[in-house]
């Protein structure tokens, strides 16, 4: 007789325990996606800066010259999101891209030969917006938790 009164309690307990577990698992996946995005941006920026340091001002005006569009395409193929804001900085000048995908057709040769010398630095930095899978509103209601701006910078010395 006591057994009939407890019938169904296991389903209720499972439901109460599984709801936080599901949110926890979704949070783990969200953090993983954010880490993957950050590492993709860091690797893409590092590779582009490395190419810029090897194909430095000695390549300006020659067949080995590289353009902003070339670096943008390289970074996109490395997994850098097209919505990223990218800055290319060298002694020869700075170029900024509001979005990486907008710079794919940019014919500007970078780094330029003007004042970029051997031993000078080239720097590429990128930032991208990341939205978590489970955004939550704050108590005040005007800010969102889970919306972050991730960034990566790579600085290389011009070798050739």
Q: How would you sum up this structure, described in words?
A:
The protein has three helices and four strands; from the N terminus they run H-H-H-E-E-E-E. It is of the alpha+beta class and 160 residues long. The protein has one domain. The protein has a four-stranded antiparallel β-sheet, covered by helices on one side. A hairpin with a 6-residue loop joins strand 3 and strand 4. The model has no long low-confidence stretch (mean pLDDT 84).
Task: Tell me the layout of helices and strands.
Layout: H1 2-5, H2 9-54, H3 68-77, E1 85-90, E2 93-97, E3 121-137, E4 144-157
Antiparallel strand pairs: 1-2, 1-3, 3-4
Helix pairs in contact: 2-3
């Amino acid at each position: 007789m006591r057994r009939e009164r407890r019938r169904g309690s296991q389903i209720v307990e499972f439901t109460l325990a599984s709801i936080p577990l599901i949110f926890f698992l979704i949070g783990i996946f969200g953090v993983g996606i954010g880490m993957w995005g950050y590492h993709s941006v860091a690797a893409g920026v590092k590779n582009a800066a490395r190419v810029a340091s090897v194909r430095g001002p000695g390549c300006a005006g020659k067949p080995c010259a590289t353009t902003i569009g070339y670096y943008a395409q390289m970074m996109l193929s490395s997994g850098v999101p097209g919505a990223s804001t990218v800055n290319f900085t060298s002694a020869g000048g700075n170029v900024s891209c509001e979005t990486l995908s907008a710079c794919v057709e940019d014919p500007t040769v970078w780094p330029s030969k003007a004042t970029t010398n051997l031993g000078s630095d080239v720097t590429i930095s990128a930032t991208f917006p990341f939205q978590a899978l489970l955004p939550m509103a704050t108590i005040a209601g005007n800010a969102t938790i889970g919306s972050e701006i991730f960034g990566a910078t790579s600085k290389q010395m011009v070798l050739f």
